[in-house]
Amino acid sequence: MHSRLYLNVLNQNPNVESCMAFNTQYSDSGLFGMYITGYGQEAPRLVDIALNELHKLNSFTPEEVSRAK
């Protein structure tokens, strides 16, 4: 099994060199983010790709929830 980022971003967009999500937890707050790298002239497209994937976080399949447990 592969992550959504691997399947939806890296596999389907040859101009994306890397893409990764991160999560940092503190005692009273946290930080979630995503970074994506590619060629400079592709920056606007990379932003669109990243935002599209972040918007998909509003729903999960039962399989994804089970895998995350």
* Radius of gyration over C-alpha positions, nearest whole angstrom: 14 Å
Give the biggest beta sheet: 2 strands, antiparallel
Number of helical segments?
3
Helix content: 25-40%
Order of helices and strands: HEEHH
- How far is the first residue's CA from the last residue's CA? 14 Å
Name the shape in a single word: globular
Mean pLDDT: 90
How many individual domains?
1
Total E-strand runs: 2
Order of neighbouring strands in the sheet with most strands? 1-2
Structural class by SSE content? alpha+beta
Proportion of beta-strand residues: 25-35%
Low-confidence stretches: none
Task: Give a written overview of the molecule.
By secondary structure, this protein is α+β, with helices and mostly antiparallel strands. It has one domain (4-68). The chain has helices at 4-10, 43-55, 62-68; strands at 16-25, 30-38.
Provide tags for this entry.
single chain, 69 residues, two-stranded antiparallel ribbon, 28% strand, globular
TL;DR of this structure?
The chain is built from 3 helices and 2 strands; from the N terminus they run H-E-E-H-H.
List the helices and strands and how they pair.
Layout (H helix, E strand, L loop, with lengths): L3 H7 L5 E10 L4 E9 L4 H13 L6 H7 L1
Antiparallel strand pairs: 1-2
Protein name: Mitochondrial-processing peptidase subunit alpha, variant 2
GO molecular function: metal ion binding
GO cellular component, one term: mitochondrion
